[in-house]
Automatic annotation (TrEMBL):
This is tRNA-specific 2-thiouridylase MnmA. It comes from Thermoleophilum album. Belongs to the MnmA/TRMU family. The keyword Transcription regulation does not apply. Its EC number is 2.8.1.13. GO terms for molecular function: ATP binding; iron ion binding; iron-sulfur cluster binding; tRNA binding; tRNA-uridine 2-sulfurtransferase activity.
């Protein structure tokens, strides 16, 4: 199989033209499975060509494939070719098919017609992803088969490479979570463009690839709460929620359906058994540690997970990628939340929550008005930059009052917390006495603490003060390097 990104073949020979014409006239599968639910659609208004490919899977096989296609002849011929290439074949072989395979089958395509093959491949892969997500695929468990959560960045690519090098049979799965034209497609790991890039890369590496379209779930369970929590004056951690409630559930279900033993990701985290069972453990590289982002994973899931990069440093990961000539070796790090990539949180809120942003007052603790802002949602506790208010001293956001749309400014000294209150969403995987430290923000050093609970609430007594814990952020509860629980920060006092 060749990659989607290979140079377009040219239709030149008489044989190629004959193959193309035959596909156009014979068209096995044309109009078949019209009502079938696992149908992917690609193309549409912007290009005028529309390809719909439907699949009926049974067990490990793509039993039947149907299509409808409108627009240019190439789109139709490529859709028909997809039926010929996929029908009756093992699902994991079909998952390796790319546009170049389809283009080759029709006898080659000129660059202007390559589009038809790309649409057919995309529609096919959307259909396969739907069948997988709907539970229409069932492989018996195969020893040595693993699924890699494949964003197409350097980390997940190296995770896949290491697994393949150690003799594992690797299946790549990419999640499509968000489609907003304003998001930078180069920097987002989960946009439609990122999915195409990841699929092309997986095929280049010879891996079967599946796309799970979780856009609706992501919007309902991650983005909507993200906006609501900002309205409520909080600074949420959508990645923690996404990992805990969306990503890993879907990926583990796919792992099971594809007959894989384990799900591997490129997260920098480790697993450890403390005698009571598996827990997450911080990565050996403290600068890259991502256990905080995984703090809400159910311990029961951990048995099916592996983090091949947990004991490596990022520089080592890049070295491995370079030595293996992986085409992503120099790909830059993703910095932002995936759905605000290239926009930043403030612009994202301006774009998606404009109606709830209203002008309001900056005030001091004693209620003195010192300036105006564009909406309390755009500020976070501990923020210093971008306030646009001259106070005569370095001013920080020390609190927010969402009801009155006020942002309270003060000095850095006012931001030191000794007691951090937790929401009722506290989860503990071990006895409360095992909570010995807390990480209050991603990329922040853990601080020693004890967990205290009474009938009404729970809080952390910190052994040393923390600067600006933001309500809404996750408190990742630690015993040494082990994650023993998590909660959302409700508030704090000195
Ligand atoms: N859209 C996605 N589909 C599938 N898996 C994903 C996706 N986004 C992230 N992941 C998985 O989560 C891991 C950590 O994601 P994170 O957003 O931190 O990206 P990253 O550190 O830039 O990793 P990478 O270099 O692999 O993109 C990735 O290595 C990958 O295994």
């Amino acid at each position: 199989m060749s990659a989607d990104r290979a140079a377009p073949a040219r239709a030149s020979s008489p044989q190629a033209r004959e193959q193309f014409e035959q596909l156009l006239t014979a068209c096995r599968g044309d109009g078949a499975l019209v009502e079938w639910p696992h149908a992917g659609i690609a193309g549409g208004a912007p290009c005028g060509d529309l390809v719909r490919i439907a699949v009926r899977c049974a067990g490990e096989t793509v039993e039947e494939v149907g299509f409808t296609a409108s627009g240019c002849g190439a789109a139709r011929a490529c859709a028909a070719a997809t039926v010929e290439l996929a029908e009756g074949r093992p699902l994991l072989e079909v998952a390796k098919l790319g546009a170049s395979d389809i283009a080759a089958y029709v006898g080659g395509l000129s660059p202007g017609k390559w589009h038809g093959a790309a649409l057919a491949a995309d529609a096919l892969h959307r259909a396969l992803g739907m069948a997988l997500a709907a539970g229409a695929v069932a492989h018996p468990q195969r020893s040595g088969r693993v699924v890699v959560a494949f964003s197409g960045g350097v980390d997940s690519t190296v995770a896949a490479y290491l697994a393949a090098q150690s003799g594992k049979e690797v299946v790549a799965v990419t999640l499509e979570l968000w489609a907003d034209p304003a998001t930078d497609p180069e920097r987002s790991c989960c946009s439609p463009r990122a999915v195409l890039r990841a699929r092309g890369l997986a095929h280049t590496l010879g891996l079967p690839h599946f796309t799970l379209d979780l856009r609706q779930r992501f919007s309902a369970q991650v983005v909507s709460p993200f906006l609501r929590l900002h309205d409520a004056g909080r600074t949420p951690n959508p990645c923690v929620v996404c990992n805990g409630q969306v990503r890993f559930d879907a990926l583990i279900a796919a792992t099971h359906a594809l007959g894989a033993e384990r799900l591997l990701t490129g997260h920098y985290a480790r697993l450890a058994d403390d005698g009571e069972g598996l827990l997450l453990r911080r990565a050996s590289d403290p600068c890259k540690d991502q256990s905080y982002m995984l703090a809400r994973l159910e311990p029961a899931l951990l048995e099916r997970l592996e983090f091949p990069l947990g004991s490596l440093e990022k520089t080592q990961v890049r070295e491995i990628a370079r030595a293996a000539a992986l085409p992503v070796a120099e790909r830059p790090e993703s910095q932002d939340l995936c759905f605000v990539a290239g926009l930043g949180t403030r612009s994202f809120l301006r774009r998606h929550a404009a109606s709830s942003l209203r002008r309001g007052k900056f005030v001091t603790r004693d209620g003195r008005e010192v300036g105006e802002h564009d909406g309390h949602q755009l500020y976070t506790v501990g923020q210093r930059r971008g306030l646009g208010v001259a106070m005569g001293y370095p001013a920080y956001v020390v609190a927010k009052d969402p009801q009155r749309n006020r942002v309270v400014l003060g000095t850095r000294d006012e931001l030191w917390a000794r007691r951090v209150y937790l929401d009722r969403d506290l989860i503990l995987h071990r006895a409360p006495q095992r909570v010995r430290a807390v990480q209050l923000r991603y990329r922040q050093r853990p601080l020693p603490c004890v967990l205290v609970e009474d009938e009404d609430r729970a809080w952390l007594e910190l052994a040393q003060p923390a600067l600006a814990p933001a309500p809404g952020q996750t408190a990742c509860l630690l015993d040494g390097e082990l994650v023993v629980g998590a909660a959302t920060i409700a508030g704090w006092e000195k």
